[in-house]
Amino acid sequence: MLALALGLLSSLGIGVGDFLASQAGRRTRAVPLVTLAAVAGTLTALTLTQIVASRVLMADVALGALTGVLIAAALTLLYTGMTASSVGIVSPSLSVVTAAIPIVVAAIRGEPPSRLTSFGVVLALAAIVPMTISPHLGHRALVGLAYGIGGGLCFGSAYSVLTATSVESGMWPVVSQRTVIVAALALVSTARGVDVLPRLEARTLSFVSGLLGTAGIAAFTAGVQRGSVALVVVAGSLYPAVTTGLAVAFSSERMRWWQVLGVTLGLTGVALAAFGSVGD
Fold first, then answer.
1. Distance (Å) of CA 58 to CA 50, 55, 170, 239
2. DSSP string of 3-65?
């Protein structure tokens, strides 16, 4: 059950981090926000290398760097989408796609999921439809869906790459991942002639979101290095429940009954996929 526990911790860290980032995104642009969050994440990952047994293995460091490019794109899409549309649309749709990709990749590699896992994935994908019916948002609902799917493709691909890292490398793939995110987005900001760091009033939220998000990614990485990939992936995809719940409780986020149904079905699908993966 260690893999399940690490997957759930991943969801908690990422979910709270995404909520804080969505609040910071109302005060600054997405790219500077992600850049500062990644700086905080790099410091977190470096600290974790002193806590979790970790050895520098160049192959795994390179894989971590590759995921950095993918996650930089994913986070930018996620935070831009939450600002342009709704947390309740972007986050769940991103989560469903994120969870589905590693499972599909594993099936292609000759590791087909169980029937329960397959049913859970199908249910979660179908749940995207009621999630995105939002009359008060108009076309912004489809905009949010597009950002969510795009971010999910990037996150899911990054997660698939992380599953190939070894337990011996520990947290070093996360260090290279966060370092690449900082470098890539700093270059983008410089090329555009815009600020590298977010506005002053958004920096604290951006920094803390980076600490929590990276802690979540670290838990995910430790989980896939030690246990069932499918179980960690789907358990680590429950973070929209945290993000959306916080948005409804502490922000102006509103959800209609069918959207609540869609989120419930999506999370149920992810949970079924998790249970179906326990014996893998």
1. 18, 10, 12, 31
2. HHHHHHHHHHHHHHHHHHHHHHTTTS-HHHHHHHHHHHHHHHHHHHHTTS-----HHHHHHHH
Cβ neighbours around 126 below 10 Å, total: 14
Q: In whole angstroms, how far apart are CA 36 and each of 1, 76, 159, 176, 184?
A: 34, 12, 22, 16, 12
Question: Cβ–Cβ contacts within 10 Å for residue 146, how many?
Answer: 17
Separation of first and last alpha carbons in the chain: 12
Q: Which two tokens stand for residue 150?
A: 């795009």
Of 143, 151, 178, 172, residue with least CA distance to 67: 178
- 73-122 pLDDT, tens digit per residue, is 998 898 888 888 877 788 778 878 887 888 788 778 777 778 887 888 78
With 0.90 as the threshold, say if the pTM is over it. Answer: no
CA–CA distance, 50 with 62 (Å, rounded to integer): 20
- Tell me: the pLDDT tens digits for 228-280? 777 787 778 777 778 878 888 887 767 778 778 877 887 787 778 767 766 55
